[in-house]
Design a protein that fits this description.
heterotrimer; A mainly alpha (109); B mainly alpha (94); C mainly alpha (170); A: 0% strand; C: 3 strands; 57% helix
Chain lengths: 109, 94, 170
């Protein structure tokens, strides 16, 4: 049982590390602000879920797990909020996104 | 093995740092700083287990709080500034 | 379209103050982990201070704790986690492919629910899912920026909105 948990936890953590790395590469490669935010959101959502999930499996039923869960919940709650604030601040300051396809008013569903 | 994850996180922080230095707009830099902040939280959590000192988790949470408030404060500052001075807000070099 | 009633609390004001106090005290105990008289006293002082500040901020005037947390939310979280993993893989493919096949686009999406909390949940879920990013929320209409056409099409299919609207349901 212990080895199974160990293996699962290492799988979670290494894949989390890979996703984090991909987000970093994306933040460098993407051509403009809004597309970079998509890449950064990979490191902000799936990265913490996998890495902290793996750590929780390692910690087992301890106080550390509770703290890790609190950190994870906090990151997942604040990440989108900060992204929204960043996107709307950029929009308000007149930073226009480059689009492959122009927006039409019929898009409102 | 913790080292591998920590290394991935540190490399990502390096990439984010490069993005923060390259810019080009101030919002790119804020994005990079925010990214570095969340990566710091992850790094601290991993380090906790790597060296077996549970008190590092408290630092991780404190850093998460500071990072969030800090990013919002910085954004508020730039928003206020671009309202006051609409001439030079988007293409900000340094 | 009737405005949802935000000012009739589902539970009494005193109850929500007590809930917040218990949450604060529990947080203090978990993080301090020490049960000395002085530290417990300091915890009590800071909890009460936070409560006083929250009351001064009119934190309890709108109704708080109004998310009907239950099995539905748990199911939604599991579904959302699956979506996050799926779209993370999509974005990973895009980032790692040498040609960088992005086609950023914007659409306005009307949230199915009138309730502001549901709309915020919808907007934050969109942002949490890599590949889509909500830029603005105004009167229930969310401006969404998507990295690829596929990501936008998935969102416009409306599965997420349906699930969130169903949460409050009936």
């Amino acid at each position: 049982m212990d080895t199974v948990i160990n293996i699962v936890s290492w799988l979670l953590m290494t894949s989390g590390g890979l996703f984090v790395l991909v987000g970093g590469i994306g933040a460098l490669r993407m051509p403009n602000l809004y597309t970079r935010m998509h890449a950064a959101s990979v490191t902000d959502s799936i990265g913490p879920i996998l890495v902290i999930g793996g750590l929780i499996l390692q910690a087992g039923m301890t106080l550390a797990s509770i703290k890790l869960t609190a950190i994870l919940v906090f990151l997942l709650l604040t990440g989108p909020t900060a992204s929204n604030a960043l996107a709307s601040a950029a929009m308000l300051s007149g930073h226009k996104p480059e689009l492959a396809q122009e927006i039409s008013e019929d898009d409102a569903v | 093995m913790y080292l591998a994850v920590a290394l991935a996180v540190v490399v990502t922080m390096g990439l984010a740092l490069i993005r923060a230095l390259l810019g080009p707009t101030v919002y790119d830099r804020v994005l990079a700083v925010n990214m570095m902040g969340t990566k710091t939280v992850l790094l601290l959590s991993v380090i906790t287990f790597a060296i077996g000192r549970p008190d590092f988790l408290d630092l991780a949470l404190a850093y998460a709080l500071i990072n969030f408030i800090g990013v919002l404060a910085v954004l508020e500052f730039f928003r206020k500034r671009s309202e006051l001075d609409p001439e030079n807000n988007t293409r900000e070099a340094e | 379209m009737s405005k949802p009633d935000l000012h009739t609390p589902q539970i009494s004001r005193l109850a929500s103050i007590l809930i917040l106090f218990v949450l604060l005290a529990a947080t203090w105990l978990v993080w301090s982990g020490l049960f000395k008289a002085l530290l417990l006293f300091l915890g009590l002082v800071s909890s009460v201070l936070c409560l006083w500040l929250a009351i001064r901020m009119r934190f309890f005037d709108d109704y708080l704790f109004s998310l009907p947390v239950g099995r539905g939310y748990l199911r939604y979280l599991v579904w959302l986690t699956r979506e996050v993993i799926k779209s993370s893989l999509d974005v990973t493919k895009v980032v790692l492919s040498p040609s960088l096949p992005i086609s950023p686009r914007i659409a306005r999406i009307r949230a199915g629910s009138d309730h502001p909390y549901d709309q915020v949940l919808f907007a934050n879920s969109i942002t949490l899912t890599p590949g889509t990013l909500s830029m603005d929320l105004d009167e229930g209409v969310i401006t969404v920026h998507a990295l690829t056409e596929q990501g936008m099409r998935d969102l416009l299919a409306g599965e997420m909105d349906r699930r969130i609207t169903a949460l409050r349901g009936k």
